[in-house]
Amino acid sequence: MTATTVRPSARDARADGALAGLGTLLKMWLRRDRVMMPAWIYGLTALVSSTVYSFKNGYDAPGSLESFARGINDNPSMRAMYGPVLNEHTAAGVSAWRVGATGAALTAVMCVLLVVRHTRAEEETGRLELVGAAAVGRRAPLTAALAAAVTAAATLAAVVAVVMMVFGLPIAGSVVFGLSWFGAGLVFAGVAAVTAQLAETSRLANGLAFAVLGAAYLVRGVADAGSAHWAAWLSPIGWAQLVRPHAGDRWAVLLLPLAAFLLLVAAAYALAERRDLGAGILAPAPGPARAAPSLRGPLALSWRLQRATLAGWSAAFLVYGLAIGGVVDGVDDLVNGSDAVLDDIRKIGGQQDLADAFLATAMGLMALFASAYAVQSVLRMRAEESAGRLEPVLATAVGRVRWAAANLAVTVAGTVVLLGATGLAIGVVHGARSGDLGGQLPRQLGAALVQLPAVWVIAAVTVLLFGLVPRATSAGWGVLTVCLLLGQVGPLLKLPQAVMDVSPFTHTPKLPGGGFDVLPVAALTAVAVAAAAAGLLAFRRRDIA
Questions:
Q1: What is the mean pLDDT of residues 204-209?
Q2: Are 227 and 314 in the same domain?
Q3: Residues contacting residue 9 through CB under 8 Å, at least 6 positions apart
Q4: C-alpha distance from residue 316 to each of 81, 191, 366 (Å)
Q5: What's the pTM?
Q6: For residue 429, is it within any domain?
Q7: How many CA atoms lie within 13 A of 307 on its CB side?
Q8: Which of these, 138, 127, 119, 132, lies nearest to 16 by C-alpha position?
Q9: Domain check: are 165 and 244 in the same one?
Q10: How far is C-alpha 367 from the geometric centre of its chain's CA atoms?
Q11: E strand or H helix that includes residue 403
Q12: Which residues contact 526 (CB under 8 A, 6 or more apart)?
């Protein structure tokens, strides 16, 4: 970036000093987000569309929706994951239940990433200091970042509301539903604005904001699963449900996220006035002059850099596994009255036994999430290179392949931990509830770990991109997206098997319940090893940065 790229116009320069250049910065932030923002909006809109379509067409038998909703409301694990069904008589009410809390949380994630990207990350890389050298007010960058996040959340809310109306859902409930997501985005845009002032790195700023989001989701889950329903009023994610879209439409509750946003933004501006550019309110403690013996190597360094991220992913996988283990015994009640949903689960799970098909589907979904962790972990290598931190490391006795292999080893070990935690959690809970702990624990653990070769293929393809076309490393997300669509939608659309076979997850054994064949597992592992080796060799020969 150069100073001329962001030099504000004469009109901006004449604006109030604190907000001078706001318009130019906002245009630049929106231009930078021209791919990221539509991707989020498209993905969340697709989630709503598929959910509404599923409930309108999958539960068309009389009483089927009510039976489904009663099964949810009688299951504490499902209430903890998604909340209670507040309107069990209409597809609109059940659809709002299914994606309400999840979509609100994902909207919050989008807004956190946008605000931190345009504030703390810009300071961390030094670009904001260059921008500030022009006629840009001190409050303009934070204001522009908040405006970008609010724009994204508002656009998402509008598109989601329109999509619901297109499906024939009531107009008022659709608007309230969109605004419930918008409110969650507002709150966590404000949270991110505060954490961006507290932390000195974008990683810590995101981590603090996501910790608040996780606590909010946990509080909501505990409130919905137990008898302390009042606790949901303490959670911004709970507010999104308490608006009751398509189940009463409480417009007044929307004032809560608006008030929280205004308070958080005021706090963020106050904190911004108390710190220097590039510094954070929470100053990092100085480290020791010499590294501990445990840090004297690329493997130890990679582990140190990724351990916090892995801990967060592991906690999420563990919670998901506990929840899935708790609902397996009631899966028959959840699909009672809907032959279409029953058929869909069996198609994706690849088995006739409903419980095993449900678990196989859950294992496949968690394998996709583990692949997301793997792609993120591999992309860290590209981030280290782009930020200029790799060259000092390679200036020592550490070679390129050794450094990259160390990072890849942490990625591989991390995927084992994630899927292992899922399998253990499902096995313990399902085994305890069914009275067969000794049988279910190894059965579910094996079903989870058998997904690893497919996950490693996605990681290896990302490594290959890193080695051959470093600027296209992020295309690993595109590869994962294609596999997601093929695995979750392909069986329902009856795509040709040749198309389905493009995804490595198509070749993994459908466990538990299905037969185990060592040949596809070995073949996927061999493909992963070959792709990773080719990527490391290409990285060894190309220029750095």
A1: 87
A2: no
A3: 23, 24
A4: 12, 21, 11
A5: 0.76
A6: yes
A7: 6
A8: 138
A9: yes
A10: 14
A11: helix 400-434
A12: none
Phi first, then psi: what are they for 344, rounded to 5°? -65, -45
Contacts of 42 (CB under 8 A, 6+ apart): none
Report residue 8 CA to chain centroid gap.
Answer: 35
Range of the domain at 176: 18-278
Same domain, 273 and 339: no
- List all residues 6 or more positions away from 310 whose beta carbon is below 8 Å from its beta carbon: 373, 410, 414, 417, 418
Q: Is the pLDDT of residue 146 over 80?
A: yes
- Distances, alpha carbon 124 to alpha carbons 119, 200, 427, in Å: 9, 8, 44
d(CA 46, CA 235): 26
292-301 pLDDT, tens per residue?
776 778 888 8
Q: Residues 383-403: what's their mean pLDDT?
A: 85
- Scanning 469-517, the segments in alpha helix (DSSP H) are 476-488, 490-493, 497-500
**Is 284 within a domain?**
no
pLDDT digits (tens, 9 = 90+) for 442-477: 988 999 999 999 999 999 999 999 999 988 888 888
Give the C-alpha separation, 144 to 150, whole Å. Answer: 10
Q: Read off the amino acid at residue 264.
A: L
